[in-house]
Structure formats: C-alpha cells, structure tokens
Amino acid sequence: MEPGAPVPRGFREVEFRTEGGPVRILERVYGDKTASDPPRPPRVAASRGTLPRGPPGGDWQPRPRGTGPPCPPPSSPVPQGAGEGAEDDDEESAGFMASVLFDADVTLAAMTGFRLWEVSSTFAQGLNGPWRGAVRGRRCVELGCGTGFVGLCAAALGAHVLLTDLPSVVRDSAEGNLRRNARAAAVPAPAGAWPGARPVGEGTCATAALDWRRPVAAQCGAADLLDAEVVLACDCLWLSEILEPFADTLAALCRGRRRPEAYVAYEERGGLEGAGAGAGAGAGPGAGAGRAFTTRADVEGALRARGLAVEVLRDVRDVRPFWDAQPGTERNVTKEAVVFRVTAG
C-alpha cells in the first residue's frame, strides 16, 4: 500500500496531522465494533453503535471504509443503516482472525496490535509538541508498536524509527502502515537510519521482529537495537503476564551503548477488575500475580526494581463516554494515563 491507497474492506483509516506531515493508519474493524474500548480478558471488549473518541482539540480524522459521508461526531450514535454489511465484515473478520491465530507467536496481547488505543493520541500529541526535540534526528526503537502509529508520528517529525513487535504483528499490521506512509520517491538513507528504512515525513522508518521473552542481543540481526538513542512504548503494558518481559527488555535497551532515554505511555486499567486490583500493593517483580491487568504502581515498581529511574512527564485524567456491548447503554468511567521518562539509573 502506498500513500493514498484505497482503504481495504474490513479496515478503517485514521489520520493524525503532525508538523512533519499527516500520518495515516489502518486499523482492523471487526464488524460494527470500534477501537475505543479497553481490553478485558479473556477477550477484548466490543462496543456497538459508537465511533472512537479523539483527543480534545486533536486532529483525528476517522473515515469509514470506502467512500461516503464523513463519520458522525464521536458522541453520536451511528445512523440507522450504518451497520449494513456487518455480517459480511464479520465473516471476513473471522477469516482474518483464523489466519492470525495459527501463528506461533500470537497471544492475547498480540491481538491488540491491530487496533488503535486511546492513550496513543496523548502520546502523539506530546511528540507533536513538547517532546519533538527528544526524537528529531535520533535513532528510536518502538517496543510493542502494534499498528506503528506512535513510531510513524515520530518518523514524520524527523526521527529515525525502528518499529518492533512480534513477527505476526509486524507482518500483518505495522508493515502495511509503514508502506502507506512512506514517500514513494526513494532517497539515499541519511545517517542514523535503520537498515531497510524508508522515508516517512521528515524522518525514516523500518520494521523488525522482537520478542520480549528472548534476550535483546540475540535478536538484533542487521538492526542493532542496542545502538538506539530513544525508546518509545505506548499502551503495551496492560497485561500482568507481559510486564516482566517488557521490563527486562527495556532495561537491556536503556543500558545500551548510547544509554537511551525511554518514553513509556501507560493507561491504568487495573480498576476494571474492582477493588481486588489493589492500589499497587506488592509492586515490583511478580506484582500483579493473580490479576489480569497491571496497575501503575506495578509498572513503576517493575522498572525501578531493575535499577531504572522513572520520572512522570505527563499525568492525564479524563472522564469519557464508555459504551457497553449493549447498544444504547452509556456510562462514564474515569480513565487515567501517564507518560513516564525512563533512564538507566
């Protein structure tokens, strides 16, 4: 897919305008389900009759599949008849799910890598504003990139980005979005670009598979991740089972040759499990045992236990509409997100 390519059936295109140019992301749409719901084990919760809500004052431009009128405001119900063809989409989605589920590396966490999640908008706004200087002209590695949205925003703003995730996510999600945003004209790779990088906006971008359960040094290949200057990670720490592997991987990168700084965005979801989620009691290695979701204290504890320094760059507390699986059912929940700056202690 090249810039301006049609939106394939079963996908939606979302556009975010950065100072370095627009970033267009395809996310998988399962029937009439939308991408704004928080995941709930053992499956990702689905919402009906709504569209994703963008950041206040942001430049999100959700577009329906194919052509037609613009999407209604996020707070409005989908017009009657907007779900026509949903059965076909469900059949297509079932085929897509079946093709991915048989990949050896697929986990519940990996399956979220085909969608956009709300905290990524907060991260993108930071990169497009006060944090641009932290990535411009620098070699960046994004962990758990999913669709590649955050890394592609950084590339558009002048960074040299390597998008990493499990092989199936890189192949079926990130690479397609990289092709969609890469400039068609080939240019000589500038200093700092990762092997195989393509020009995106004012920077460059490439992809590589990375499994947090394996040592980083054993997976570098042509792209030496230990030569990174900045590490990015956005909303990829929600499951307790992946917190320890992530913390080990981040610690290895932060102790790389260039001692990179890391920007880690995290959305609190522990409260969805009720009072049993705790307020971070027992944070550190092994925290979250018996719970599906991590808490903010779990994350901070796991990083500090590995000798990493953790600084809060931005706290976000926002009450947003939340739609249950039942059409027309609406309630408010408080969503909390934080962006950390992490460095080797």
What does this protein structure show overall?
About 28% of the residues have low confidence. By secondary structure, the protein is α/β, with parallel strands linked by helices. Strands 7-8-6-5-9-10-12-11 form an 8-stranded mixed sheet. Strands 1-2 form a two-stranded antiparallel sheet. It has a domain of 238 residues: Vaccinia Virus protein VP39 (Rossmann fold, 3-Layer(aba) Sandwich), CATH 3.40.50. It has 8 helices and 12 strands.
Give the C-level CATH assignment of the domain at 107-344: Alpha Beta
Q: Tell me, what's the shape? A: globular
- Structural class call reads alpha/beta
Provide the β-strand percentage band. 15-25%
- For the largest beta sheet, what order do the strands appear in spatially? 7-8-6-5-9-10-12-11
CATH topology of the domain at 107-344: Rossmann fold
CATH level-four homologous superfamily name of the domain at 107-344: Vaccinia Virus protein VP39
- Report the major sheet: 8 strands, mixed
Q: List the uncertain runs.
A: 32-102, 274-286, 319-332
Distance from first to last alpha carbon? 42 Å
Please work out how many helical segments DSSP would assign. 8
CATH architecture label of the domain at 107-344: 3-Layer(aba) Sandwich
Number of strands: 12
Order of helices and strands: EEEEHHHHEHEHEEEHEHEE
Radius of gyration: 19 Å
- Share of residues in helices: 10-25%
**Average pLDDT rating:** 74
